[in-house]
């Protein structure tokens, strides 16, 4: 990836996409083409002050490419409908399947390397583990329409005979960090817990409805957005074997650990209350996720992963306390 080559980032006004834009800027990459629906006022701060060549509305992107042949050298396709509470599959299908197919075909036809966002939501309850194995994709059972749409695209990818010169489907686990301020209910637990603690001096976590887990000991692979950007860029720069790659920390931590890390950062005694998990997500709730990170590490990725405590400290101290953006 050369500094004078043009890089497309879809979802560039969103959480991970805008962070990736800032991260690329920090490495000296400014030939960026930002693709998104830029009409949402709440996302404006995510790309204000960033350095880029063009801003293209997602509905006009393919037409723009026709009028600018040869203008794109790399694509990070991070744009998606990410609302896990949206139960209408067709809403997810439009952006997570059909639009992604168009991106794939564009990259294939023009010989453009592609990194696209899949999701750990594809793993469902983890009956088949959390291993980024291309061969088990058709056996996975996601728990909601969002996860199904992401897995349906992965399945479609596996069936393709024609493909980009390099592709990686990155399975994001529980990502947290700056630039997620606009996400509302879908923002990370860390974001919501911080605001609860600042307002009430306490935090509410979901009670366990599974006898195998005590309250607050449900576990997730929480991954700091800085590590996510680092892995995405590494994949594009190094282009190991094409395929699916987990993007997590490789270490499951409990929600209790997470809350305690926030209290510690704020120099407060932990004060945790438990509430029932909302019924609309209760039967689709994951109690444990942990990324198997061996594939990307065997491919040569050797950067240390940010611990939950380090990530929370950085996020709270340098961003949430000042409502700062990256």
TrEMBL record:
Return the EC number.
5.1.3.20
UniProt-annotated binding residues for substrate: 174, 185, 192, 206-209, 220, 285
Name by which UniProt lists this protein: ADP-L-glycero-D-manno-heptose-6-epimerase
Q: Which residues form the active site?
A: 146 (proton acceptor), 183 (proton acceptor)
Identify the HAMAP family for this entry. Heptose_epimerase (MF_01601)
One Pfam family name is Epimerase
The GO biological-process annotations, alphabetized, read as:
ADP-L-glycero-beta-D-manno-heptose biosynthetic process; carbohydrate metabolic process
Function text: Catalyzes the interconversion between ADP-D-glycero-beta-D-manno-heptose and ADP-L-glycero-beta-D-manno-heptose via an epimerization at carbon 6 of the heptose.
The UniProt record lists the NAD-dependent epimerase/dehydratase domain at: 7-248
Which InterPro entries does the record associate with it? Epimerase_deHydtase (IPR001509), Heptose_epim (IPR011912), NAD(P)-bd_dom_sf (IPR036291)
- Which free-text remark accompanies the cofactor? Binds 1 NADP(+) per subunit.
Give GO terms: molecular function aspect only.
Answer: ADP-glyceromanno-heptose 6-epimerase activity; NADP binding
Quote the record's domain comment: Contains a large N-terminal NADP-binding domain, and a smaller C-terminal substrate-binding domain.
Source organism of this protein record: Taibaiella soli
Pathway of this protein? Nucleotide-sugar biosynthesis; ADP-L-glycero-beta-D-manno-heptose biosynthesis; ADP-L-glycero-beta-D-manno-heptose from D-glycero-beta-D-manno-heptose 7-phosphate: step 4/4
What is catalyzed by this enzyme? ADP-D-glycero-beta-D-manno-heptose = ADP-L-glycero-beta-D-manno-heptose
Describe the family membership recorded for this protein in Swiss-Prot or TrEMBL: Belongs to the NAD(P)-dependent epimerase/dehydratase family. HldD subfamily.
Q: How does it assemble?
A: Homopentamer.
